[in-house]
Amino acid sequence: MTSFPWLSLIVFFPLIGAVLCFLVKAESSRWVALGFTVGNFLFSLPLWWLFDSSTAAMQFVEQASWINSPPVRYSLGMDGISFPLVLMTTFLMPFCVTVSWTAIEKRVPLFMSMLLVMETAMLGVFVALDFILFYVFWEAMLIPMYLLIGVWGGPNRLYAAIKFFLYTLAGSVLLLVAILALYFQGGHTFDILELSRGTYGATLQMWLFLAFFAAFAVKVPMFPFHTWLPDAHVEAPTAGSVILASVLLKMGTYGFLRFTLPMLPDATAAFTKPMIALSIVAIIYGAYMALAQTDIKKLIAYSSVSHMGFVTLGIFVLNIQGIEGAVMQMVNHGITTGGLFLCVGIIYERTHSRQIADNTGLAGPMPRYALFLMIFALSSLGLPGTNSFVGEFLVLAGTFVWSQFATALAALGVILAAAYILWLMQRVVFGTPAAAHRAHLLDLNARETATLVPLIVLVFVLGIFPNPLLSRMHASVTHLLNGPKAPAYATAPSPTLPVAATTTVAATQPISSSEQAATR
Amino acid sequence: MSISLQDLLAILPELIVIGAACLVLALDPILETAKKDLLAWLTLGALAMCIGVTSSQMTGHTYAFSNMVILDAYAAFWKLLLYLVTGLTVLLSLAYLKAERLRIGEYYGFILLALAGMMVMVSGADLLTIYLGTELMSLSLYVMAGLKRTEARSLEASAKYFVLGAFSSGILLYGISLLYGLAGSTSLSVIAEAITMQGTSNPILSLALVLLAVGFGFKLAVVPFHMWTPDVYQGSPTSVTAFMAVASKAASFGAFLRVFVEGLGAASADWSVLFTIICLATLALGNLVAIVQTSIKRMLAYSSIAHAGYALIGVVVAGGHRGDGAGGGFASVLLYIAIYSFMTLGAFALIGMLRKEGQESENIEDYAGLAKREPLAAFFMLVFLVSLAGIPPTAGFIGKFYIFMAAVNGGMTWLAVVAVVFAAISAFYYLRIVMVMYMREPEGTVASQSRLETSPALSFVLACALAGVVLLGLFPNGLWSLATHAAPLLK
What ipTM, to 2 d.p.? Predict the structure, then answer.
């Protein structure tokens, strides 16, 4: 088992499918995409059991040289922070295919192929252990996403696609310069673990922090860099929205956790207050904007801004509850918001409108759909027993340690979420049905039910039994905060929350070099 | 001065090329029209022989013809690149000339003569040799630019190119004459010694530097000496445009670096300041003006101006930074131009052969809905454009990566920041073509829409360009070690 290249397999397996999509008949490309996404999920599933939750070291490490000079390595690995995101990505991709089954009618092979290329790039981002390799995957994602929005999107898709592209590209080109600067300051290496162990001067850290921030904050998106998000979300086809909301946004917060915190501890400590302030603004502003929307997709898009505010809040309070809550929230937001976008896509196929006013009173004609939508909605507002509750609760608990006032402000976001979600549900599920659409409103078919049920199951499983997931990230998060290079962080007392208390793993031993990282 | 066999062996590739050019010109009137393709194959044969000879001259550092010509890894690097792009241009021309009904045998003769000039440029060790090479290249290109004799734009391109080119040659000569006055010789090594001895404070030297920079600036098409580029690139037959944008730019960079490093290296502190300004202006103007173009040939003309700006970053950095860092800077220029050649040639090949109603599809609007009509052509174009924008995993990213790496290494992080901002801006105009190809519906009837006129030769060119762009993006090691091996050293 030591040498089996699990990560290369799951990263590049979809790419084979992407090529195959063009070689088969246009109709069959759907099956190819489904086969490869499901297959990839099955390949990634064993990792759940193979993953050693007792260590913070990188696991399933693969190393090979790629570029000789400067030394850029093809090195992959996974720890407790990337692990949940990888599984979430492979889990969600099959549903992106099934929801597009009939919704995408033109240029199906290209669409399916782009979905598979996206999967490769996204997984690559989460498992890359070389900064340049990370950057390659990070940027490689732009073109397929640009095409997904621009070719199959809504009426205003051209504007949304180019806006998405330029915003994210402008943010990430500065990251490249920062990476190069780090290379020369950090001992002439692009190895992420190596760079995380180095110490850098305060001024350099400030500049690097800002460059990293430009790349990651646009992706998250943090207020005030969020303006591309509502456009992109609204115009993208359903699968594109799901990928954007569930995975792409997480890459920004993942970047903060993987790079900013370990590499730039002093700058992180110095920027904690503004970052938390921006997070809280995002939470409240996003929620307020959501209240005012008449377009369901736009409403969910703004709710994403709000929910991602919780994630960045959890990250920058810099304690175990906060960060575990943040990672948890990343996964939960992926599932819940992904579910909501899938639901919107399903109803859009029937009524061809995303307006709330056109989609009212669905409980009558579509009872099963209404039930599923309701579950995702309640999860989105953080109802105890659903997945989002765990994440938001942990983040708020972590924030409480940092500042009670900040917690009070952030909690406002939870209340507002209840307001916009319940109001949305009141209209969409229980309102008076719009007569024009009644005839088309068939309840979910088998394919659609199969798309939503697994997500619903996860909503409850993660809501009621979060420990298996939390325990797998615990060692890595502890190491992130207490590792050899995090003296600046005031570490909070070890979590005493019932949901997180089961695992007490000594994970503070330093990883001496990436080669020694346990590969089991 | 006597000519030895050694000397003749040293310039064997040049002799082959010139011999082949004469043969082409001699055969042209004899051959029947239907058999003129033979001339192209003859040209390719000569190139293949040259590749063999030059590959054997990769190592070593020998002078020939009393220090007029130098044979080193640097010259060999450029020559090999030139053979490659010339070969691809010839194949492209096979298809393009037929489509344009330009049945002119001399065409291949001129290509070979231009190539001979370029080869002399990159292996000249004396300002006069280099000047002669530039003139041979330019004169051949003036003629080629005007080959579409019935089209006013082509004639205009030729005339404009000639007037401005002659003007810039004059300036170049003036600079050379000043240097001769200073050093008493036109040999680069003697000039270098003279400058080291006399110091760099002499105002005549500064004037000569400026004049040479202007002269080469015209050939490199950097701002503010770029004005001819859009018109000439647009008006010339597209195969010629590709040849100018790629081969002539590569040879000019080769000669330019040779002169400024080996001849004027001692004054590098002065010229690197000069080129910093030119570089910034080039990046800004090239990228910003490209945004508003409606003709894809003009857009690529501005894009090629902008790319010269990126390559200049490597020159600037190396000039301000002696030792190993300088090698990194120059090597990144060599790498960048090589990568640029593949993506630009690929893009121009597609432009030339995407035709409607017997005409090239030159307007960006003609590309509307191309992904539906010609999915493969659109995909190739997508890859070339993405590479030009510098987005991984294409070769364009690798080129920019090494350039920015050199900049940060040389302590010019600010320049790297400016350059990446312009790279992000450039993505806008490249992506606009992608948008038109993939996201817009075609207009007009089916007959009036542009289609790709395929032929085996064109397919081969496109496959080579695509392979270059993709493989160099994934496995840059080989080319980078060639470039570092060949890069000149600032002493």
Answer: 0.93
